[in-house]
Fold this protein.
Amino acid sequence: MTKGQAEVERENLRQMISVRGRLEGSDLGTAIRQIQSQLVKDVKLPPGMTVEYGGLYQEQQSSFRELAIALVLAVLLVFITLLIEFRSYAHPIAIVTGAVLALSGVLLALFITRSTLNVVSLMGMIMIVGIVAKNGILMLDAVEDHLADGDTLREALLRSGRRRFRPVLMTSLAAMCLACCPWLWR
Amino acid sequence: MLPLALALGAGSELLQPLAIAVIGGLTMALGLSLIVTPTVYMRCCEGAFGTATKGAVGNLFSLQRSEMFITLNSPKDLAPSGAKPNGGTIADVGKGDCALLQGLGVKIRTGSYKHLAPSCPLSGEATDRSSVALLV
């Protein structure tokens, strides 16, 4: 007599065997990549049998997709709002370009600290788009004032850069260092 | 964010990536919003703003097609020799441009011209500098 399975699991009208595992000392993305590359090499599946990756990985993928959509939507909505507010294309294009490029800073910081790009850091990216758009508004709003004073566009941009450096620095430093302190004492 | 990034305090391990992302992004944004945003803005506007001053009277009518430049409250405000201006608002005339326009015989009169250089003398009934337009 040989031992068999006591139970036959089914999903979507097909028989299924789930292989589960617990990760230690590795993140989900790396582990799944290793499993995928190893499975292709080592396992020859009989006809009619397929491999699906489920569980946490599936959930992570779907939440990633949702957050990526949220990020794109955030950028689009910021653009549309600015378009309505400023009534020109030049302002929103300049502000949104700055905001999207600032995301490179997120990737750089994650790379330096050897952190992973996960759901939480994607949330941080969405926050960044908002904060940076605000910096851009501060900046270009001052430009309007200087233009009204009779400066040329170039003079106005230089002057407002000088004038807005302090407020931009203040808000950024406040958010970076202080604003999140209360989270410590929950 | 800093305490979170350094993973001080209970439960901050979870939020650490958020803090790192926000700090990195804000640091980058500090430079970018002061350099990239004005640069892109200038690039976007340069074509529009720049030519207005070069063209002056000769091109004034062709410029009216782009509504960034010139709006006239009534077409007959600006109608020498059969020219037919469209609506539009002048967006930018610097100190130098003002003299250039006047040198080319452009007079400045009431309309909807917002960003007029204060050094531009006004003619006609215009009293409020926030409401001035160009008249050829």
In short: Helices of chain A lie at 28-42, 55-86, 90-112, 119-148, 153-178. Chain A has a mean pLDDT of 84. The first strand of chain A starts at residue 9 and ends at 11. The beta strands of chain A are 9-11, 14-16.
